[in-house]
């Protein structure tokens, strides 16, 4: 799934905060947005392994959530929503496609690395690949609850994120050709630093 879908999923869950603690809604949404993106910062360094923890984020998110219930404030709410969105992201990646350059070919058996059992979880492909039409649709649906509770600046951010998702989905299948073309310009001394999936055929 696209990083934007993960951000929107986190924000969708965080919009529940508006029901219990409306004054914390903005900080909850902002933290969940960042937390939903966070695991994909490992894109160039062990993607879906280094910052993806489909098991380990959850207990920390629950502990932070308990703390936020006992002591509700911007810091505890932000920490909870950040961890919850990162946990959701890591788990959701199991239901997307694999790690290959052209994930619609469905050749990869790697969805996300599970540090708990020490192996890769295989992709279920409920959303066939990142940037698939159903991925953009999912993101748009997830944007509805937060759009109902967000203030103006966050509403713009959420709207822009949906637009970005749709735009990426429209060009997604052209991305590998562009990537391969760009990799040709990488000096041979540097090619060992190019992630393997960017050079595979
Ligand atoms: Zn991811």
TrEMBL record:
Q: What keywords are annotated for this sequence in UniProt?
A: Membrane, Transmembrane, Transmembrane helix
Top-level taxon of the source organism: Archaea
Kindly provide the name given to this protein in its UniProt entry: Membrane-bound metal-dependent hydrolase
Query: Mind telling me which residue stretches traverse the membrane in this protein?
Result: 56-85, 129-148
Which organism does this record belong to? Answer: Halococcus thailandensis JCM 13552
């Amino acid at each position: 799934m696209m990083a934007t879908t993960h951000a929107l999923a986190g924000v969708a869950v965080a919009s529940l905060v508006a029901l219990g603690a409306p004054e914390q809604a903005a900080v909850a949404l902002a933290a969940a947005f960042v937390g939903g993106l966070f695991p994909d910062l490992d894109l160039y360094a062990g993607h879906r392994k280094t910052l993806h923890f489909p098991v380990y984020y959850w207990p920390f998110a629950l502990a932070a959530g308990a703390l936020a219930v006992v002591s509700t404030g911007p810091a505890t709410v932000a920490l909870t929503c950040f961890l919850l969105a990162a946990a959701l992201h890591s788990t959701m990646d199991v239901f997307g496609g694999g790690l290959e350059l052209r994930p619609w070919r469905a050749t990869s058996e790697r969805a996300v690395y599970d540090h708990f059992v020490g192996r890769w979880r295989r992709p279920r492909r409920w959303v066939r690949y990142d940037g698939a039409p159903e991925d953009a649709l999912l993101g748009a649906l997830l944007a509805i609850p937060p759009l109902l509770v967000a203030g103006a600046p966050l509403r713009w951010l959420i709207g822009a994120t949906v637009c970005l998702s749709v735009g990426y989905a429209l060009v997604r299948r052209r991305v590998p050709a562009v990537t391969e073309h760009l990799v040709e310009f990488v000096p041979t001394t540097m090619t060992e630093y190019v992630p393997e999936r960017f050079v595979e055929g």
